[in-house]
Amino acid sequence: MTDIELISDSRCFEGHQRTYRHESSACGCPMQFAVYLPPAADKGPVPAVYWLSGLTCTEENFSIKSGAQRYAAELGLALIIPDTSPRGLDIPGENEQIDLGTGAGFYVNATEAPWAPHYRMYDYVSKELVDVVNANLPVDPGRKSISGHSMGGHGALLVGTRNAEQYRSISAFSPISSASRSEWGRNALGAYLGPDEQAWLEYDACEVIRSSPSGHQLLVDQGTADPFLDQLRPDLLKEACAAAGQRLDLRERAGYDHGYYFVGTFIGEHLRFHAAALDA
Amino acid sequence: MTDIELISDSRCFEGHQRTYRHESSACGCPMQFAVYLPPAADKGPVPAVYWLSGLTCTEENFSIKSGAQRYAAELGLALIIPDTSPRGLDIPGENEQIDLGTGAGFYVNATEAPWAPHYRMYDYVSKELVDVVNANLPVDPGRKSISGHSMGGHGALLVGTRNAEQYRSISAFSPISSASRSEWGRNALGAYLGPDEQAWLEYDACEVIRSSPSGHQLLVDQGTADPFLDQLRPDLLKEACAAAGQRLDLRERAGYDHGYYFVGTFIGEHLRFHAAALDA
Question: Looking at chain B, which residue has its C-alpha nearest residue A18?
Fold first, then answer.
């Protein structure tokens, strides 16, 4: 069992909002994650929703800004909120671009120098973190779901679809639907995976859905006033789902933008969607 | 009518979360404030709850961290959230201490150099901001209440009690109950008001309550795991209210600390308390 270190613990909606740190073997460095444990976790294991955050975020942003704890407390759901990249490695250029390096892991396993030894967020999120959480926290290993925002929406669609048997349900807010056709994604995938774009496709949510749609219904919320629609391309997600027979409930929200005021408005609906799939 | 400039506008719970800037005559500099307008404000004037924030905060902290918009939307309440001090004045020492200068206006009218020309947060919050809001936003001038956190809890008790006829209800989270007997408060009041402690008492919530209790019931939430109890002194608030015949509902919350996870947990109860007093 990996040791985890408790960094902070605040009572919140009669449960606990915590930060943990542990040595990650996937990333070869210490990683932090946040957890919300609902009051039901005092009595026994609860199902968990994993939340993947967007560019520039740490494990704090969703914890502080979403107001999700209120719903998680009511529904009896744990929230597991990883960081978005390794940090503090002194890799040249790691802090120079918002879409590469620190805060921009893009949920891939890098194959290219200088990123490859550490930037393995796909393995971290889909395997190591799950093992750490299952071994140390009062969650039911057989009941988990996944969601996320923007780069983390891409991550949720990607990790959830490629491991559909492991997640009961998948949702996203404003996801980068096709990383290989977004400027942010192309910059990151090129650096992490090299110039052969064929290698990028296993990390492109639309391509993954086209090649192996999940049995799940995807729930996606997208604000119509989002200034980043050219990076997110919900139209490509619709096309890919239609072509693959992937069920998709895409909710276009009039006048909402890309930020956490948008996420906070609809996170309750997403958690209820996951709670239903998780028999919470 | 003072001109106000719209700085940001995000849709949130079918209403609007906005930031405004205006030239403040009380403070002699530009001031920013945040506003949440609930969906009901599209149809006509709504009652308003003023929120005063704590040390180091801007108008953003409560807006981002409290999750209050969800309740305000349901209850049909506007939220008015001022900054906690003037900013950017290049006053010597304004950025050196957390309890003095920027982010630490303490809701007083300073009389001492170099603060006196600008640090007039009592007048700003109790008069000028109210006039600006009433003139420019769809609120009902006859229906307003006040709340706040820590230094802003002190401010809410102070401004609300000294102007009890203008506010329908008063509440606070973790207030600095007696600024003249708190180290933070003594540092600030000494700098803003000078060494004569008699002059401090009109800005000490416990003293104001002792000399003229309001007809309101005060609602106060306080976490028992708050690390700043020696600065906040809820015991002095209880004593002052008992001595003055001031009604007080002091809710001591087991295991909660001083932060916004605590505020977020109970802000819904406070807004329902205010909504009842405001006939919202």
Answer: B261
